Amino acid sequence: MRIRPYKPCDGDLIAGWLKDEKIFNMWCAGKYAYPMTSEQLNERYDSARDNPCEYMFTAIDDDGTPVGYFLLRNADWEAQSVHMGFIVIDAAKRGKGFGKQMLTMAKKYCFEILGMKRITLGVFHINPRAIDCYESAGFIPYATEDEPFIFNGREWKVIDMECVCRDE
Q1: How many domains, in total, are found in the chain?
Q2: Is residue 125 part of a domain?
Q3: Is 13 helix (H, G, I), strand (E, B) or coil?
């Protein structure tokens, strides 16, 4: 697996991974309109392209086929911190280690290329597979947000997680 900058041609495939409304909302917390479209991803790409604090990435397999996606945003150069979000793996690839591998590469990029010391992310408490994946990649919970996200009348609590660079 490799990570590379997101390309607009990735949009259709990534949007196709988010067809289930619950999974879609676990992914974006209502920040996009359901159903997901490549146009929405590409609008984000257009705004991120000129934002020095935001980066979109696609994870690809050895054949160059997209298998994952994530966004780095809110890069704080002074605090050496960045937030990772909109993390998704192709449904056909889930449970096979692709998520951990993508997160490991994202951490390496953040720490070694961007020079960050801290990466944060948020995950809903109702998503134990994602929590396990993030923990296996070295993220630890540090807070639970006060305001829950409401989906179909149910409250989803956001767990904030972080990974801190351990200088060696």
Answers
A1: 1
A2: no
A3: helix
Condensed to tens digits (0 to 9), the pLDDT of residues 34-90 reads 999 999 999 999 999 999 999 999 999 999 999 999 999 999 999 999 999 999 999
- Measured between alpha carbons, how far is residue 86 from residues 26, 27, 62 in Å? 9, 6, 23
Residues 8 and 28: their CA atoms lie apart, in Å, by 19
Residue 11: how many CB atoms within 10 A of its CB? 23
Residue 26 belongs to some domain of the structure:
yes
Q: Any residues with CB less than 8 A from the CB of 166 and at least 6 apart, and which?
A: none
Strand order in the sheet with 140-144: 2-5, 55-60, 66-76, 81-89, 118-124, 158-164, 140-144
**Residue 166 pLDDT level (bands cut at 50, 70, 90):** confident
Cα distance between residue 129 and residue 97, in whole Å: 12
Question: For position 88, which CATH number holds?
Answer: 3.40.630.30
pTM for this entry: 0.96
Nearest to 121 by CA among 74, 84, 164: 84
* ω into 35 cis (within 30 of 0): yes
